[in-house]
Amino acid sequence: MSTPEEQIKAAIVVYGDKIAIADPELNEATRLACYSLHRFVDYISTLDPKLERHQAITMASAILDSLPALLGTDSELIDGIKAECQALRSLANE
Length: 94
Fold this sequence. Notes:
With 94 residues, the chain is mostly helical. It contains four helices and two strands; from the N terminus they run αββααα. It has helices at residues 4-10, 24-47, 53-71, 75-93, and strands spanning 12-14, 19-21. A two-stranded antiparallel sheet has the order 1-2. A hairpin with a 4-residue loop joins strand 1 and strand 2 (19-21). Helix 2 (24-47) crosses helix 3 (53-71). The longest helix has 24 residues, at 24-47.
């Protein structure tokens, strides 16, 4: 069983530019993002098995950072992402 202080600390999320209060939906979204990032780093490691784990993570970060520029050149892909975002919002409103 956790103490009230531990529960409060667990409910606070510190980002580079802000502090937020975590809620179950944010916690689940963060868990999914971390899981996907872990799988992506594993994939990068298969492309160059000599990479150390921290190097594969750094490469994954660089790729994610470049995604907006890469996606910006494909209007069909951007439209598809926008449609998926709208569908996700619609599910949340049901």
